[in-house]
């Protein structure tokens, strides 16, 4: 198991609040690692710290053996890290096409890659020349994810992609992530929909109070209701 991303003793302060309190985590290359935990555990802060949006107060973050904890966000992105925030960040005044053209750092989006994306998210083809701000919430989430995967990335950081979405759209997202996983992509994914987590997760990290309190195979957590209730306060079956 090759380690692509490693966090060692990472602390993050936001103002006077000490959010991450010594995070130690490994994200294996070519696998989907789920980052689970109760609300307020520090999951979003972890992703934002990796991406350089909130600087780590101490500790180290390495990507493919290279330290990135002191790097600026644009430089981290240039290393091939894609980020999908839970806020569904898109450029509202630009069209769907323009959003994807901007996200493709290597030049115009590859036509074959676009057709692959449209297979999961046909609404993006339909609204290709429409303003992103006019899309529904689910369509904006599709566009946000499409922006991150419009070209191959070394690492994808994805924060609660299924939050508030209709079941049909959730199903399309699960299919998309499963295909990304089959293609060898490395994903660190925060998710509250445990059906989705169970379907696409290879590994799992569970956070509590700014620390990783459990690490292991997703299948192990899926099969152990007592462990689920101890770590998450509920069983996966009761939280679909």
Automatic annotation (TrEMBL):
GO biological process terms on file: L-amino acid transport
Highest taxon in the source lineage? Bacteria
Which Gene Ontology molecular function entries are recorded, alphabetically?
ATP binding; ATP hydrolysis activity; branched-chain amino acid transmembrane transporter activity
Which keywords has UniProt assigned to this entry?
Answer: Amino-acid transport, ATP-binding, Nucleotide-binding, Transport
Residue limits of the ABC transporter domain?
5-234
Pfam families according to UniProt: ABC_tran (PF00005)
Q: Which family does it belong to?
A: Belongs to the ABC transporter superfamily.
According to its UniProt entry, the function of this protein is described as: Involved in beta-(1-->2)glucan export. Transmembrane domains (TMD) form a pore in the inner membrane and the ATP-binding domain (NBD) is responsible for energy generation.
PANTHER family associated with the record: ABC TRANSPORTER ATP-BINDING PROTEIN, HIGH-AFFINITY BRANCHED-CHAIN AMINO ACID TRANSPORT ATP-BINDING PROTEIN LIVF
Q: What is this protein called?
A: Amino acid/amide ABC transporter ATP-binding protein 2 (HAAT family)
Q: What organism is listed for this UniProt entry?
A: Rhodopseudomonas faecalis
């Amino acid at each position: 198991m090759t380690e692509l991303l490693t966090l060692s003793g990472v602390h993050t302060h936001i103002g006077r609040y000490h959010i991450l309190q010594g995070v130690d985590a490994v994200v294996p290359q070519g696998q989907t690692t789920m980052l689970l935990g109760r609300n307020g555990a520090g999951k979003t802060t972890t992703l934002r710290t990796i991406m350089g949006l909130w600087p780590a107060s101490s500790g180290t973050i390495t990507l493919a053996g290279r330290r990135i904890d002191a790097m600026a966000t644009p430089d981290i992105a240039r290393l091939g890290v894609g980020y999908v925030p839970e806020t569904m960040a898109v450029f509202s005044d630009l069209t769907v096409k323009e959003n994807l053209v901007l996200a493709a750092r290597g030049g115009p989006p590859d036509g074959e890659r676009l057709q692959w994306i449209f297979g999961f998210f046909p609404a993006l083809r339909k609204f290709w020349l429409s303003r992103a701000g006019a899309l529904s919430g689910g369509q904006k989430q599709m566009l946000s994810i499409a922006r991150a995967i419009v070209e191959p990335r070394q690492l994808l950081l994805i924060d609660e992609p299924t939050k508030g979405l209709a079941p049909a759209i959730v199903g399309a997202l699960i299919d998309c992530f499963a295909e990304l996983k089959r293609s060898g992509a490395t994903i660190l994914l925060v998710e509250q929909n445990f059906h989705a987590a169970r379907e696409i997760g290879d590994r799992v990290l569970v956070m509590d109070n700014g620390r990783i309190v459990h690490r292991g195979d997703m299948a192990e957590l899926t099969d152990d209701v007592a462990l689920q209730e101890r770590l998450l306060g509920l069983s996966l079956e009761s939280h679909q």
